[in-house]
Amino acid sequence: MEYLPYEQQPAVTWEDRAAERIMQLEGLNYSFKAIHQREDYSLRPSGRVTVSYPEENGAYAKDYGDNSAAGPNEYSTELDAEMTLKNQLIPEYIERSREIFPEYDSYSENLRIEILQSVYRGWDSTETAKLIRKKDWFLASIEFLNHDDYRAAIAPNSTTRGVARRMEALADALQKEGEM
Fold this sequence. Notes:
The protein is mainly alpha-helical.
């Protein structure tokens, strides 16, 4: 079965660059079964098919964390996933980021993007948030990595190395903010 290659939409705004960052870090849950079940076997205009997946709480999500999936085997496309991320999820998580960090819009683009991807993944570092609000960038970067999830991710034979990469990216952005 062939499909037309998917071309990611160009990043024009910082919000688009934030979406790109999340797409780099997250990945999609692809369904090759869904491609072969298509009745007319026609070329798909937007690439491979994605399928919903169960979250830890038992609810289903699809694409880049869109929680509107009602159950298993809900299908989407790469283009739909990107558009949902850019048009629905990014604005929602920008607002969540602003709630946690009232001066969010004054931070550098790099820091805004890394905070956004951390909030997207489920921000739970109240001590780091306090240090960021005080603009104590260096201590915030250290405190952010002082977390059980990070220690588990860097442990030998860890299967969650991606968690460490995400957290290190924010810690690096915090340090760079302090150097500005």
